[in-house]
Amino acid sequence: MQKMVKQLLAWYQENQRKLPWRQDKNPYHVWVSEIMLQQTRVEAVKAYYKRFFESLPDISSLAAVEDDILMKLWQGLGYYNRARNLKKAAQTIIEEYQGKFPDSYEEILKLSGIGAYTAGAIASISFGIRVPAVDGNVYRIYTRLTECGEDISKTGVQKNVREKVAELVPAENPGDFNQALMDLGAEICLPNGEPHCMECPVREFCMAEKNGTVLKYPYKSPKKERRLEEKTVFIFEYEGKYLLQKRAEKGLLAGLWEFPAEEGCLTVEEVLEKVKAFCGEVEELELLGKAKHIFSHIEWRMIGYMVRLKKVRPEILADFTFATKEELREKYSIPNAYAAYLKQVI
What we know:
The chain is an alpha+beta fold and 346 residues long. The protein is built from 15 helices and seven strands.
C-alpha cells in the first residue's frame, strides 16, 4: 500500500490539474471551491468561483452579504441551502473564531454545511492535517482497487472505507494525497463509461482491473423513482416589467425568486380564467412551450405562457414584485428550474 501511495503522489506531481483554487492554500478559497464543486462540473465552477471572490474576497464580506446578493452569486449552482450555510458558517467564524478560519479538523467539522469530506479537504490541504477526504471519487477508486461489492450508499460501508483510506494518508503531504485521489477519479477512474485503466498510475494494485470487473464497482442500491410534478408557469409582462414572487423561506428552492405557477398542465381556457381572476386584463397570451427540470427526488414537467397584461389589479402589488430585464439579469436569483423560460425573457 505504501508503494501505491508513492506512485500516486509521483503521478500527481506530474499531472495535477491547474485549478484557480489550487493557486494557494487559503482555507476560505478551498472551502468555497469544495462547496461549489458538489454536484457541479469543474469547468462550470471556474466562472462562478471567479465571480464569487470578486464580490466576496474574504470571510467578513461573506458573513455580511445580503441574502439576495448571495443568491444571485450562487444562481446556476443549485442547492441554494449550501450558499446559506456558507454565510452562516462565515458568521460563526467571525463571532467565535475572531474571523480566523479554525485550524483543526474537529472545529472545521462543527461549521454549518461542512461534512466529513469537506472538513477533510480543508484540514489536509490548508493545514497539513493527516485526515482523509473521501467523496464519490474515492469510494469508486477504493471499491475498484479492492473489489469491494458492498453497497456504498450505506453509512456503515462509507465509514469503513473512510477508516481504510485514513490509514493510507501520508503524514508529510496529506493535502496532495487527497487531491491526487480527486484527480485520479476525475480523469482516470471515471464514473461513467470506460475508465482509462491503461493510464492509471496504480493499475498494478487494482483487483477489479486485474479481473476485468471494473464496471461492476462501486455498487449502489437502486434509487427510488423521482416524484413527477406538473406545473403551468406564467411569465406576466406589464409595461416592460415581469412579475416575480418569492418562495417560502423553507422547503425546495427556499427564499428564491420565481415566476408564478399553478399545479397541473392547464389548457389555454383554464389559463385565461386563472389569469383574469388573479391579476387583471389580458392583452396577449403566448405559448412558450414545455420544459422540465430534475431535482434529486422530484421532476418538474412544465408548460409556460407569456401573459401580456393591459391592466393590473393594485392589490397584487403588495405580494409580488415587478422586475425589468436588467434586474432579472443582475439582481434577482431565479432558479435554474425556470431557465428555459427566463432565457426567452432576457
